[in-house]
Amino acid sequence: MLEAPPTIHSICCIGAGYVGGPTMAVIADRCPHIQVTVVDLNAERIAAWNDADLTRLPVYEPGLDAVVGRARGRNLHFTTEVDAAIAAADMVFLSVNTPTKTRGVGAGQASDLRWIEASARQVAAASQGHTIVVEKSTLPVRTAEAVKAILNGAQGSGGGKTFSVLSNPEFLAEGTAIQDLEGPDRVLIGGEDPAAIDALASVYGHWVAQERILRTNLWSSELSKLTANAFLAQRISSINSIAALCEATGADVREVGRAIGTDSRIGPKFLQAGPGFGGSCFQKDILNLVYLCRHYGLEEAAAYWESVVGLNTWQQQRIARLVVNSLFGTVSGKRLAVLGFAFKADTNDTREAPAIRICRDLIEEGAQLAIVDPKVDAAQIARDLEHSPVSADAAAGSRPLGADGSWLAAGSPIEAARGADAVLILTEWKDYRQIDWASIANVMRRPAWLFDARAVADAAAARAAGLNVWTVGEG
Ligand code: UDX
Ligand code: UDX
């Protein structure tokens, strides 16, 4: 007879970021009998997760405040007491960040696994009895091997510690994280220990139908995550390449997208042309895939995936160049309003946001940017642009020719547009669909432009208000 899977009473998650925080909040909400403790080295972040004011959680996600509000203090806890949380846990999730290495072997492509390694060592040292270790971070294929080797060291050193390692990649998208977690297309669990797999499946089984829980070996699970992100990113580069062709030939990429999207083999999703993909995962995961292909001598496969990232960079540079060319070949000393800085709507995350490269290029060209985003604060924009803002007073009135580029934070689209030669829409925030273009046009310098890189604005209304309008993918 098969042994019953161990029942999970206590979960610890290392890493209280965009993945760990929302994922654990939903597990706690759906499994009131499991104690869920989220730990992080960053005390400020933990304090923010514990903030009595739920509008000040460190991650902005629609619906997250309600989920945290229901579970926090009951069976959802946020703390910096890492060792105690590991010791109490039957199951530990690793949800720490794994950015692209900036130096050493594999720099620019391979993932930096130092935090995964440190977390595995901490689990090895602090755990008690049998612990199921779940990789939640997106990792290069065969990382579980390294995690296992570290844990096996502790297993051999006495103290009755034993471990099982599982891979359980997260497919949530920011902005819809709660929806994605509560009703996932699938949950993927990779591993070799059937009892551990069953234990994790039974946690998800509280709200996910068993047929949606896929079981694979460890390596397939790790590779599936990289592949899913690479395919999604590839669709965006594909449609963006067609957008450029549409602009050149007079076709409309939205019509093309609709026409191909009704082919059930292609499907309608992820065909939105834009300023290129951002976010913490797509570029990093593709570069990981490129590194792995090269490592195994598959040069053509590596070059194929590398071109997806290359096209994405090109699209961002193309948009910045197009703005400069339209404004008579120079933006030096000109005010440009930038609407949206987050990498997509409904998140405060700016990692790899297309706005970063586009704004940097325009500042480099001497532009004076007035940037507004409903959820991203000025301090974050300053870090991303590696440039402090100028004050609104200093910017007012002066239009020095050939001046150095600069930026300032604006409070609203109309404030950003005041005195500007152009408005650029870089994030598809819902509010930007409802902008009153007559009022905006009123405060701009003429001739004035709208560059809509997300195709969300009411272009007809903007044209009627006297603006020259460029919409991505519209010929
Ligand atoms: C990260 C990875 O980027 C992603 O690939 C993976 O799928 C999940 O983890 P995210 O949650 O968005 O995604 O990252 P981030 O918001 O940076 O959160 C990671 C957290 O881990 C940070 O709060 C960091 O302080 C914490 N951390 C990191 C630790 O607590 N301990 C460490 O040793 C390292
Ligand atoms: C992605 C994956 O979707 C998710 O499954 C994985 O777990 C993490 O990476 P995320 O990066 O949060 O999620 O958001 P996503 O909605 O995938 O968007 C990524 C980028 O692609 C954004 O910059 C978005 O604006 C862009 N995008 C998306 C397009 O330009 N066009 C589209 O049609 C879709």
- How are the strands of the largest sheet arranged? 3-2-1-4-5-6-7-8
Structural class: alpha/beta
Head-to-tail CA distance between termini = 67 Å
CATH C-level of the largest domain? Alpha Beta
CATH topology of the largest domain: Rossmann fold
How big is the Rg? 24 Å
**Domains counted in the coordinates: how many?**
2
Characterize the overall form. globular
Low-confidence segments: none
Strand coverage percent: 5-15%
Largest sheet: 8 strands, mixed
Strand segment count:
14
Instruction: Supply the CATH superfamily name of the largest domain.
Output: NAD(P)-binding Rossmann-like Domain
CATH architecture of the largest domain: 3-Layer(aba) Sandwich
Number of helices: 18
Cofactors, ions, other ligands: uridine-5'-diphosphate-xylopyranose
Helix content estimate: 40-55%
Mean pLDDT: 94
Topology readout:
Elements: E1 10-14, H1 20-30, E2 35-39, H2 43-49, H3 64-71, E3 76-79, H4 82-88, E4 91-94, H5 114-126, E5 130-135, H6 143-156, E6 162-167, H7 177-182, E7 187-191, H8 194-204, E8 213-216, H9 218-249, H10 253-261, H11 282-295, H12 299-326, E9 335-339, H13 354-364, E10 368-372, H14 378-385, H15 392-395, E11 406-409, H16 413-417, E12 422-425, H17 437-443, E13 449-452, H18 459-464, E14 468-471
Helix pairs in contact: 1-3, 4-5, 5-6, 9-11, 9-12, 11-12, 12-13
This protein binds uridine-5'-diphosphate-xylopyranose (2 copies).
One uridine-5'-diphosphate-xylopyranose (UDX) binds next to helix 9.
